[in-house]
Each structure stands twice: as C-alpha cells, then as structure tokens.
Amino acid sequence: MTEPQKILIMFCFAFFLFAFLSWQICKIYELEAELETYRSPYLIGSAPHFYFENCFEVQGIVTKYTPRIEETDSTPFITATGQRVREGIIANNCLKFDTYVEIDGIFYSVADRMNDRYNNCCECFDIFSWSLDEAINFGKQYKTIRICY
To answer: Are residues 57 and 8 in the same domain?
Structure first.
C-alpha cells in the first residue's frame, strides 16, 4: 500500500469518526431538549367549559406525587397508559383514562393509577409533579374537583 493510500484511509477514518461523534452529540442535545419538554410546566390549562358534554363536581382529596420508585412502581417515568410522565397528568383509580379533571381552574388528564392501597378511594386524586419539595409542601388538600368527559 502506498503512502497516499494510507493517508487517504486515515483521512476517511478520521472523517467517519468525526461525523459519528457529531451525530452522537446532536442526539444528546435532542434528548436534552426532549427532556426539557417533559419537565416544562405542561398544564392543559383553562379549556372552555362548553367544550365538554358532561361535567360534574365532586369533593375529593388531592395530593401530588413524583417519579420516584418509592411512590410509584418499578417504571416511575411511564404512566399506566404507557405515556411518559409529564406535568398535566393526574392519577385516579376509578375514572377512565383521558378524562379531564379541573382543580383550581387547571385541567389535568387522567393517565395514571394510584398505588393499590388507594384502590377503593375514588375521591382520591394524585397530581404529577417533578419537584419533591413541591409535592411535600402541597400536602393533602380537600378540594372541589370538576370532572369532564
């Protein structure tokens, strides 16, 4: 093999390595951006009440939970519906998935279930939060909950 061929092979190898590393770095930035999307305060917001055909109010117990194995199952970042966790999700054991729940003017989507120890507690609602401090400070609150589907 001649010297120019060796240089060409080394150049091609270096170029391939550079391209591969650049692609990996781009993927990392894309994943970080996606993670920020999941961490951003995503709340469904204040949907107009006429959008829903059926709504009713109940009194319930509202708490917050975080994606920790101590509070969830072995897949803390996946909801019972198979979605990735995000703010704007609420857990309840009795309502159908994709039911909207309004608490203090903010709409949440039912996409998760609560721990088995709350199996018979239909009036219990658990709001997803990324912050453990926020969840602890929120505590256990008794609120009027509007359920819409």
So the answer is: no
Q: Which domain holds residue 84?
A: 49-148
Rounded distance between C-alpha atoms, residue 89 and residue 98, angstroms: 10
Hunting for tokens 């803390």 — which residue is that? 76
> Is 33 in a helix, a strand, or coil?
helix
Query: 55-65 and 124-128: which strand pairing?
Result: parallel
Q: Say how far apart CA 18 and CA 117 lie, in whole Å.
A: 53
**Cα(133)–Cα(108) distance, rounded to whole angstroms?**
20
Whether 140 shows a pLDDT value over 90: the answer reads yes
Cβ–Cβ contacts within 10 Å for residue 52, how many?
Answer: 16
Q: What is the CATH number of the domain that holds 141?
A: 2.40.40.10
Distance (Å, whole) CA 66 – CA 14? 45
The predicted model scores a pTM of: 0.66
Q: For all residues of the chain together, what is the average pLDDT?
A: 83
Query: pLDDT by residue (tens digit) across 17-51?
Result: 888 888 888 777 777 766 665 554 444 555 555 56
